[in-house]
Amino acid sequence: MPEAEATVRSFRFATDDLPEPQRDLALRGLRERGLLPVEPLPGRVAHVDITKQFLPGIGVLCGTLAGLRQEASPHQRDSGAELFFAVNLSGRSAALQRQREISFKDGEAVLLSGANGGFSVVRPTPVRFVGLRMSQKRLAPFSRGLDDSGMRVIPANTAPLRLLASYVGAIANMAGSMSTEMSGVIAAHLHDLVALSLGSTPDAVAAAAGSLRAARLQAIKRDVAARLLEDPDLTVAAIAARHQVTPRYVHKLFERDGMTFTRFVLEERLDHACRRLRNPQFSARSISSIAYDVGFGDLSYFNRVFRRRYGATPSDIRQLAQLNGSLG
Q1: Domain end residue (candidates: 220, 250, 272)
Q2: What is the pLDDT of residues 262-299, one digit of tens each?
Q3: CATH code assigned at 238
Q4: Where residue 146 falls among pLDDT bands split at 50, 70, 90?
């Protein structure tokens, strides 16, 4: 993959809407175009739901695969100079290279080098995963033992590995809005997190401090968004405990991002409320019920901060959505 690739490209593909007889044909097309080199396994129903992003110097693949063999050939362009880093978020996979086979399960990752020849990753049953492809030359100065690396498994309890998986999950939703400048920053973060997961040199650990902060912030934001509706009294102390950091550290992460934890939680609650007010499925619920559902205990406060954020009242937003719906 060219280091100077400036254009951010991405695509999403899923087999769910395809009849089974057409799935093999669609997968063959992806394989022939070099986008997804997979082969259906005999006696298995192939399932694919993936997002692929091409960032500067690194390719990112994430989603779910089942009933497939994913392959990489040493005859592909530049494959001998590339590393492949596969993380199983859930499920079990097997990696095969040079007549050697290793399995890796929930939370574990495997490192494969194209310099050691072709390889395949087999996923008979559903596996939710993250896969990264990058230059071995780019990563070698920052990680130990890459020059002679064969297949190896990285344990699930490796902290940078968990941050890497969470970070990729966050950026998968940003593909359509990612600028070229942002893509370069994210690519650098991913390289740092892979290096830290593999065992970095002391210089690399110091250089990756910014990437660790960015990944932790994204992980915390995703956690807050996921728990917001379940816990109306969500606190920074509870989030800090879940991520094994101090509340002060969480506050500092948000401050570096030009935000406060309290403000982020408030805006997330307001965004949830706004989406429900615009959604016809919630048209029968009162505005006060929606406010309480997303964690507001004071209706007058909800109305005040809602208007400050959106420049309109909750009633205005609902009426506009209903008008647009009737016109559509």
Answers
A1: 220
A2: 999 999 999 999 999 999 999 999 999 999 999 998 99
A3: 1.10.10.60
A4: low
Task: Label residues 101-111 b or e (16+ Cβ within 10 Å = b).
Answer: ebebeebbbbb
Q: Tell me how far apart the alpha carbons of residues 27 and 47 are, in angstroms, rounded to a whole number.
A: 10
Q: What is the DSSP secondary structure assignment for residue 59, as one 8-state letter?
A: E
DSSP percent split of the chain into helix, strand, coil, nearest 5: 50, 25, 30
Task: Give the three-state DSSP class for 20.
Answer: helix
Report yes or no: 240 and 247 within 8 Å, Cβ to Cβ.
Answer: yes
Q: What pLDDT is recorded for position 3?
A: 39
**Residues sharing a CB contact under 8 Å with residue 2, sequence separation 6 or more, in sequence order:** 57
Domain range for residue 205?
9-220
Which residues have C-beta within 8 Å of that of residue 138, sequence separation ≥ 6? 3, 57, 191
- In terms of Cβ atoms closer than 10 Å to its own Cβ (0-12, 13-18, 19+), residue 132 is buried
Query: Beta-carbon neighbour count of residue 11 at 10 Å?
Result: 13
CA distance 15 to 315: 40
Among residues 165, 186, 220, the one where a domain terminates is 220
